[in-house]
């Protein structure tokens, strides 16, 4: 079944140009503009399950460990929030244009596993990207729409604040309006958000993405165990001086060489980049220093709602 937009199927052909998506479906345009206009909320770490670039995670309201899902730092990247309305099971993913098929199918599989017996419908919210010169955003928009439209599961697109719809001009330069989304699991609300903490092992998770371990798009949370799980992976750094070169790059060099949108990146982009390579310098062989005996790293919620290391066991 094609992607359904307010009772109407999207059809086999994607809108060309993309802005026709909102012209063809006025209720979608209204919902997309409404999300864009919601003030940004700053979420603290308590009860937060944060996913980074090229990650996804899901939970449901019966999970007392998680109050919020979230992700941010999306410029050309896109954010997808998928909810099964019967159980309230919700999954969030952060897409950068690589392994989109894996991410979409992983999210759908994950949410069906969490929901168990599906009694409602699957509702999708998309946000992110902007009208960038290289048209990277519109390509990611197309890929996401295509993958959800190709899946046999009925999915209802409720909001698409993406690419052109997510663009604001500042002194003649386009910028994204929404950089991040938060999901309130109790009240089932979705809103623009930013975060003061991005969860455990964030530099390690970024290293996995940078080295594109098996073209991965991991689910970082095991709903049944109520644990963040970082699966083992490896990289080998023979020459630590090469790592130092990355760390010592200027802010401008990092932005120009490693960002798809240097002018639009949030302040944490450069800091996150350096922290990742500092982490790599400290742990040049993670299978030895971090994944002892080839076991995953587990994190559980403390009574205060913060993530704490539970070692290499989920108990």
UniProtKB/TrEMBL annotation:
UniProt-listed Pfam families: N_Asn_amidohyd (PF14736)
InterPro entries with a match to the protein in the record: NTAN1 (IPR026750)
Alphabetical GO biological process terms: ubiquitin-dependent protein catabolic process
Molecular-function GO terms, alphabetical: protein-N-terminal asparagine amidohydrolase activity
GO cellular component: nucleus
PANTHER family noted in UniProt: N-TERMINAL ASPARAGINE AMIDOHYDROLASE, PROTEIN N-TERMINAL ASPARAGINE AMIDOHYDROLASE
Protein name (Swiss-Prot/TrEMBL): Protein N-terminal asparagine amidohydrolase
């Amino acid at each position: 079944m094609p992607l359904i937009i307010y009772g109407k199927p999207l059809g086999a052909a994607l809108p060309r140009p993309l802005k026709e998506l909102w012209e063809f479906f006025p209720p979608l345009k209204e919902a997309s503009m409404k999300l864009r206009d919601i003030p940004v909320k700053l979420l603290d770490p308590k009860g937060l399950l944060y996913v980074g670039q090229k990650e996804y995670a899901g939970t449901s309201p019966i999970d007392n460990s998680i109050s919020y899902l979230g992700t941010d730092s999306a410029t050309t990247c896109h954010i997808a929030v998928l909810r099964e309305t019967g159980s309230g099971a919700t999954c969030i993913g952060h897409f950068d244009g690589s392994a989109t098929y894996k991410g979409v199918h992983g999210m759908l599989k994950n949410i069906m596993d969490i929901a168990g017996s599906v009694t409602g419908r699957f509702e999708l919210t998309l946000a992110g990207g902007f009208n960038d010169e290289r048209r990277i955003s519109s390509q990611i928009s197309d890929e996401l729409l295509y993958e959800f439209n190709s899946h046999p599961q009925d999915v209802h697109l409720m909001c698409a604040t993406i690419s052109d719809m997510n663009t604001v001009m500042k002194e003649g330069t386009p910028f994204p309006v929404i950089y991040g989304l938060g999901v309130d699991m109790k009240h089932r609300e979705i809103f623009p958000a930013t975060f003061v903490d991005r969860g455990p092992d964030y530099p390690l998770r970024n290293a996995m993405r940078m080295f594109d371990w098996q073209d991965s798009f991991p689910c970082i949370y095991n709903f049944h165990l109520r644990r963040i799980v970082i699966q083992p992976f490896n990289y080998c750094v023979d020459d630590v001086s090469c790592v130092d070169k990355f760390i010592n790059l200027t802010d401008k060099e990092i932005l120009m060489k490693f960002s798809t949108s240097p002018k639009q990146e949030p302040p944490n982009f450069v800091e996150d980049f350096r922290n990742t390579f500092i982490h790599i310098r400290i742990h040049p062989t993670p299978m030895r220093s971090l994944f002892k005996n080839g076991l995953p790293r587990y994190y559980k919620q403390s009574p205060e709602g913060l993530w704490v290391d539970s070692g290499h066991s989920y108990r």
